[in-house]
Amino acid sequence: MRWEDFRRSQNVEDRRGQPGGGGPMRMGGRGGLGLGTIVVLGLIGWALGIDPRILIGGAEMVVGGGGAPMTQQSVETVRPGSPQDKAGQFAASVLAQTEDVWNAILPQQANVQYQQPRLVLFSGATQSGCGFAQAQMGPFYCPGDRKLYIDLDFFADMQRRINANGDFAFAYVIAHEVGHHIENLLGILPKAQEMQRQSSERDANALSVRVELMADCLAGVWAHHAEKRWQVLEQGDLEEALNAAAAVGDDRLQRAGAGRVVPDSFTHGTSEQRVRWFSAGLKTGNVGNCNTFQAQRL
Fold it and tell me: Domain residues for 250?
């Protein structure tokens, strides 16, 4: 993927290198995963030899998110300007491309003004508007503060654990989280969260799948327009992204972890679904084709 020649976004907060993320380790409440859940998933991952953040499925705190920020906050050091290391520069470049694409097409296609989110780079743990965040949760979008959070070591885990590698595969991860921000701006995300709070666990999971597949499709929309405007794709890039989408399908992760598939527990969609919805956005470049909540077939 071509990224070195593009501008870097200034909407990056680099919190890496801070011990423990600072502040009290309070978990749970709206917008977070309970401490017991994290511990159990960690133990299961250890026993099965699978990274806990993969079992969590990149468990974005999108589901049930939007909780109030922590009442007690520590002072966190944010390095000004764009990161200087290669991984940080890559993330800032991809974020800039998403900004340029969505600044142009969201008002055009959805009559909604794009509001740029901030990307928080952290190592290990940090505070978020949705509660205390740990790297084991994987990348996530917090609607409470409209920020994306990612520990860049997640990319190394993608390579090592699920054989998903390449710049474009990593860009897909960032674009997927930006997709959740688009859902928030469109008003879809808060409506889905409200429906989840009133639903059974099975129905809440089904709503989560629709939220995640729509974010996959929106990531494809970004890729469509980035390629059209700047020809960012190089040989093998598309295969990298499709492989990454397939690798994080609920069915594949469950089969690899527990040896069986439980569809009612899906929260992100099957490998086939994730590939198909990303491909739909990539092919059409149209936000209107990504509304999974009106789709008869997921």
Answer: 12-290
